[in-house]
Amino acid sequence: MRRALAILAAGSATRAGVDKVLADLGGQPVLAWSIAAAQAAKCFDEIVVVAPKEKLAAFAKVAGDRARVVAGGDTRTASSWAALDALAAADVIAIHDAARPFAPPSLFARCVEIASAEGSAVAGLPLADTVRRADEVGAATEELSREGLWSAQTPQAFRRELLARARAVAGDRAYSDDAAAVAATGAKPKMVPGERRNLKITTLEDVAYARELVAKGLVGFPVLSVR
Predict the structure, then answer these.
(1) What is the dihedral angle through the alpha carbons of 117, 118, 124, 126, rounded to the nearest 10 degrees?
(2) What was the pLDDT predicted at 225?
(3) What span, in angstroms and rounded, lies between the C-alpha atoms of 154 and 81?
(4) What pLDDT digit, counting tens, does each position of 12-41 carry?
(5) I want to staple 194 with a disulfide (CB 3.0 to 4.6 A). Which of 22, 80, 123, 190 is the partner?
(6) What does the DSSP assignment read for 54-83?
(7) Residue 115 lies in a domain
(8) Full residue range of the structural domain in which residue 210 is found
């Protein structure tokens, strides 16, 4: 069974104000952290980076010989389908957001193992906070039960046939993540425990916080062990 990883890095960086996945993080571009973690997981036969069409050279420089770089689409979902095309020989495909640099190798390996056996594995965390719905002026209108609610992360891994079916059903529709696209077919993606440190860099404040974690030694750049 051939297993592959697609790291999605083609999205807009407008909320962060900078190209967040090429930003420096502990002396390495943010993107390099995910590539290194995937290599250290030792569960992938191939890694591709899905990058903006106009920045392929810059992303290829970061990827080096560790990953192949392909052009993405105008939406996150379109970039996932570009990855599906690029990984035509893969039986299991994991998809990861490049803006989540702290996903550990063990999480990649866990998602791939479960997806290989059960068809899908979506990293996430059960909600621990109270959840309330509010109106347009911020007034709370309803308290929701958090029982059974998860906050989804990446990586999200699927057998190829699930993603192919999701693509056929999706048409031109865009989804918030790949689990949503798969769920739209009637399938039920399996949630698996993610990691608290697997934060997503969205704003400049997130970039600063990630750098602080690295500077304090709370997270470290993944290293490929030699056996």
Answers:
(1) -120
(2) 60
(3) 16
(4) 555 555 688 999 999 999 999 999 999 999
(5) 123
(6) GGHHHHHHHHTTSSEEEE--SSHHHHHHHH
(7) yes
(8) 3-120+152-215
Q: Is residue 184 part of a domain?
A: yes
pLDDT digits (tens, 9 = 90+) for 156-173: 999 999 999 999 999 999
Per-residue confidence band for 227, with pLDDT thresholds at 50, 70 and 90: very low
Query: Is the Cα torsion angle 42, 46, 50, 55 positive or negative in sign?
Result: positive
Map residue 211 onto helix, strand or coil.
helix
Residue of 16, 17, 43 lying closest to 155 (CA atoms): 43
Q: Residue 58 pLDDT more than 70? A: yes
Q: Which residues pair with 192 in a beta bridge?
A: 123
Angle 99-100-102 from CA coordinates, rounded to 5°:
140
DSSP-derived secondary structure for 3-43: EEEEEE--S--TTTTS-GGGSEETTEEHHHHHHHHHHHHT-
| C-alpha–C-alpha distance, residues 51 and 55, integer Å | 7
> Domain with 42 in it: what CATH number?
3.90.550.10
Token code pair at residue 145:
């039960």
Q: What total number of domains does the chain contain?
A: 1
Mean pLDDT across the stretch 198-215? 95
